[in-house]
Design a protein that fits this description.
heterodimer, A: 187 residues, 5-stranded parallel sheet, 4-stranded mixed sheet, 4 helices, B: 449 residues, alpha/beta, 6-stranded parallel sheet
């Protein structure tokens, strides 16, 4: 008997089950629905509390200016693989989470938001959702979209030495989000 | 019962302060950040874990299908030897010299690093705390804060000795040294090994939760990614993460979400710019199906390794992580170790508890740790009774039923309690309360006159 069959058969023996026995449905999915209110404000507050930087702009052109300002002359890579010496990685994001100040990325190179010491993300206000629960509601099977969904909540950090907070351990210590306000708010 | 000598830990003031302040901070953060619906969430998490473990065979088979549909490969390992042998062979076949690892209690459990070292493979721990410990040849002290017993000075010394760095006095400086040293390893490594916080049956995915970015690097930079996970980590649906992620970060460090949550479904796909070319998921039994068979203690397997029970445990907070005999320390270690190893090994563990109940109260998946401790105690007593204790209670019970004898013997016993055997051990850390000048019986007698 293979290890696979042995493990499965000991599990079945332990549970008093047989191959093909029916399985009742799992407990219902519990995803919260928060009102989509003041999303930009919430997002900004949450990310700033983690020492991230949020810049609000109104147009693509303004976004380019904001990116240049955040770059401050450093070398950067956009939408392709960074080299070990790249100073800044510029990415988009698929969603942003208002309650935690997070970015959710499915499609950018995995290392672009990770290897360089600084990460700049350019997103639109319409991509902000209330919380991660909304992403799981919109995308019940994240694995269908790409091999890696990454949720980034602030700069890389550690408290492994005397519980003192240090940013930028392995991932970027610096995060800038350039947020293009593309949603019309009724007064 | 052979118990460990904890006097060194108790007498080490620096260590006591380090444990106390780290765990106090973690408990405080947790309390400040719990959501209003926390009780609902933990009940739901418990229910999902219960459902999954009660039908584990079904979910493991589903997971195998979904992982393989994404081009990953599932390796079933009955024990540590099988898991290590697979990884060793894969490394040999692919000519891997350096492996980067992100924190995984499961690989600690099976001593993977020792096995790799035997083959001349350099396996580098990349979590900052784990890296410090690995350089110094030590084991993790705490599930989520592995090096909490190390001071800045200790860490600087380790780096000076092993990395030939200059003395450093700040955590920032030390972190920079480690980042540079480890960055080279990440770029050279032929394989990355991670654990898994969750396995997602409907998605063929693993989920990694971390703050540093080393798990992302380990799972993305090398050509081969191997995830090693206990079979109990599976949950049915990606959507169940809504519940578990709200609990894990908050219970561990008080973070609403840890910095990086990676949902990884297989290797790099056609058209994707980066990611590993091969993905393997090693599903480890190593005694877990044995635990599964005991319906009333099965819930020991629900653990999501947040560390909250350690931080709240008055015993852990005094004796620290090195006083426990196995990789899992604290209250959860007290119930896992005897069940994995057999009650005859380390049978003192379930007794090393004040049964205050804090662990059960803070467990985000509602494992009834205090109840399981009691069950393990009674198993131990049934299989290997302590005769001194047995007879002491017999005598005590007889005395309680014979008040005349009790009245005469009690004052004598108190005055003459001999400091030997268990009494001596008990008194080594405590003072015997001074008996009052007049006993309750005397007072009662005087009053009734």
């Amino acid at each position: 008997m293979t290890s696979r069959d042995q493990i499965l058969s000991s599990a079945r023996a332990a549970l008093n089950r047989h191959p093909g026995d029916p399985v009742p449905p799992p407990p219902p999915v519990l995803l919260r629905e928060a009102p989509a209110e003041r999303l930009v404000e919430q997002f900004t507050k949450a990310l700033e509390a983690l020492a991230g930087n949020v810049v609000l702009v109104n147009t693509k052109e303004e976004a380019e200016v904001a990116v240049d300002k955040a770059l401050n002359g450093r070398t950067f890579v956009r939408s392709s693989n960074p080299s070990p010496t790249t100073e800044v990685g510029i990415t988009s994001a698929d969603y942003a989470l208002a309650d935690t100040g997070s970015l959710v990325i499915f499609k950018e190179p995995r290392l672009l938001s990770l290897l360089p010491p600084c990460h700049i993300a350019v997103i639109k206000e319409s991509q902000i959702v209330a919380s991660l629960d909304d992403v799981f509601r919109l995308r019940p099977l994240p694995g269908d979209i790409s091999s890696a969904m990454v949720v980034i909540t602030g700069p890389s950090r550690t408290a492994d030495i005397e519980m003192r907070l240090v940013r930028g351990v392995h991932g970027p210590g610096e995060i800038h989000v350039i947020l293009i306000q593309d949603v019309t708010h009724s007064a | 019962m052979k118990t460990p000598d904890v006097t060194a830990a108790l007498g080490d003031q620096k260590l006591q302060l380090a444990i106390y302040s780290a765990t106090a901070r973690l408990t405080e953060r947790r309390r400040e950040n719990l959501t209003p619906d926390y009780e609902d969430l933990r009940q739901h998490a418990h229910d999902i874990k219960k459902h999954t473990l009660d039908h584990l065979d079904f979910y493991l088979e589903q997971l195998e299908r979904t992982v393989e549909a994404r081009g990953g490969k599932v390796i079933w390992a009955k024990d540590g030897a099988e898991a290590c042998a697979f990884i060793q062979k894969l490394a040999r076949d692919r000519g891997v010299k350096i492996i980067v690892k992100s924190k995984s209690m499961t690989t600690e459990e099976i001593h993977l690093n020792d096995h790799l070292e035997e083959d001349g493979i350099e396996a580098v721990e990349t979590d900052l705390g784990e890296y410090i410990l690995q350089l110094g040849g030590e084991k993790p002290f705490h599930i989520i804060a592995p090096a909490l017993h190390k001071t800045i000075g200790d860490v600087s010394e380790v780096f000076e000795k092993h990395l030939h760095s200059q003395p450093e006095t700040t955590p920032e400086g030390l972190t920079k040294i480690a980042r540079a040293a480890l960055r080279e390893k990440f770029l050279e490594a032929g394989m990355g090994i991670t654990g898994a916080n969750f396995l997602i049956a409907d998605s063929g995915a693993i989920v990694l939760v971390e703050n540093e970015g080393n798990a992302r690097l380990s799972s993305s930079a090398p050509k081969i990614h191997v995830a090693v996970s206990g079979i109990e980590k599976v949950i049915p649906r990606a959507q169940d993460l809504g519940v578990f992620l709200k609990l894990l970060g908050r219970s561990a460090t008080g973070q609403p979400l840890s910095v990086y949550t990676s949902f990884l479904a297989g290797a790099k796909r056609a058209g994707e710019p980066d990611g590993p070319e091969e993905f393997y998921l090693v599903l480890l039994d190593n005694g877990r199906t044995k635990l599964l068979a005991d319906e009333s203690k099965r819930q020991s397997l629900y653990c999501i390794r947040c560390g909250a029970c350690l931080n709240h445990c008055p015993v852990y907070r005094k004796i620290g992580g090195y006083s426990y005999p196995w990789v899992y320390s604290g209250p959860i270690g007290k119930i896992l170790t005897p069940q994995f190893m057999g009650i005859e090994h380390d049978s003192w563990l379930p007794f090393a508890s004040s049964l205050c109940g804090a662990c059960g109260e803070v467990c985000p998946v509602k494992i009834e740790i205090p109840r399981i401790l009691l069950e393990l105690r009674s198993e131990k007593v049934a299989s290997d009774p302590d005769l001194v204790e047995l007879w002491s209670f017999k005598v005590w019970s007889w005395l309680m039923r014979h008040p005349k004898f009790y009245a005469r013997l009690a004052p004598l016993a108190l005055a003459a309690a001999p400091p030997v055997g268990p009494v001596k051990n008990w008194l080594s850390q405590r003072d015997l309360p001074v008996p009052p000048a007049k006993s309750f019986r005397d007072l009662w007698k005087a009053r009734s006159k």
